[in-house]
Amino acid sequence: MVEEPIQEEEKFINITDIGCYPFGSEDENRRHMREKIVKKGSDHFQNKNGPFTKDKKGRWMTSALFSQNLPDGRKQNRSWIAYSPKTEAAYCIPCILFSKTPVNSVSLFEMKQGFRKWKDSSPFVSHEQTSWHRLAFAECKEMEMHLREGETIKEKLVQEIETE
Question: Most exposed among 39, 64, 137, 143, judged by the fewest C-beta atoms under 10 Å?
Answer without folding.
Answer: 64
